[in-house]
Design brief:
Helices cover about 35% and strands about 15% of the residues. It is an alpha+beta fold. It has one domain. It has a four-stranded antiparallel β-sheet. It starts with a helix and ends in a 30-residue tail after the last strand.
Length: about 220
């Protein structure tokens, strides 16, 4: 009797497709989820890069328009830039999961080409600092420029370069297991477009000053 049952089972093929499907489903599902995660990661890389470029571009353009004097920039201008970045980041929630660092690279006034970071403004809860130094770095002649070694960006005398760094912790769509390195780091830079007053960042109303986005504070808008 047992041998008869075994013979019938050996000739039965009615469940073969179902078994193959059951065995292959976890693999296919994992591959599909992995592909979706990698696609979302690529889109996030692109969006963070575009945000850095937009901030650097906007930073190079801001300033009160005047025909009689160089453009002045105000703390409120920088704060408006940061608010715009928050709005454009949308669901990325840039300042909750990342950090934006805006630096003005200039030439030390008493020199011909010595590079230094004149001012720096930051926003975001991620606890990172600029990879190239804080405000004032380079006054001693130690700064070649900002950017990867051998590819440093430099400013010309009487001009400024806006250098933006963003560090963002990617938020997985499915699982962090599919993304071993979740930190997205990108930079962007633009020369200041017009003649700019490089002496300082001004306050529109000194009696009621605007908030300064200082780099020793880690918060979000």
């Amino acid at each position: 009797m047992i041998s008869g049952i075994c013979r019938r089972l050996s000739r039965s093929v009615s469940g073969v497709a179902a078994v193959e499907f059951a065995l292959g489903l976890p693999v296919m599902l994992s591959l599909g989820l992995w592909g979706a995660e990698l696609g979302n990661l690529a889109v996030t890389h692109m969006r963070v890069s575009q945000l850095a470029m937009q901030l650097a571009d906007n930073g190079s353009r801001i300033g009160d328009v005047s025909m009689l004097e160089s453009l002045r920039i105000y703390e409120s201008d920088i704060n408006d830039m940061l608010v715009g970045a928050k709005i454009q980041s949308g669901k990325l929630d840039l300042f909750e999961h990342g950090r934006v660092i805006i630096s003005s690279l200039e030439v030390v006034p008493s020199s011909e080409s010595t590079q230094y970071i004149h001012w720096q403004r930051c926003m975001g809860k991620r606890t990172v600092q600029s990879a190239y130094g804080s405000e004032g770095t380079g006054l001693d002649g130690s700064l070649k420029g900002m950017g990867p070694t051998g590819e440093e960006v430099t400013a010309s005398k009487g001009d400024a370069v806006i250098f933006v760094e963003i560090s963002y912790e990617y938020q997985p769509l499915v699982s962090s297991r599919f993304v071993p390195n979740r930190v997205i780091s990108t930079t962007a830079t633009f020369n200041v477009r017009d003649d700019r007053d490089l002496t300082q960042i001004y306050q529109r109303n000194t009696a009621s000053p605007d908030t300064v986005a200082r780099c020793n504070v880690f918060n979000a808008i």
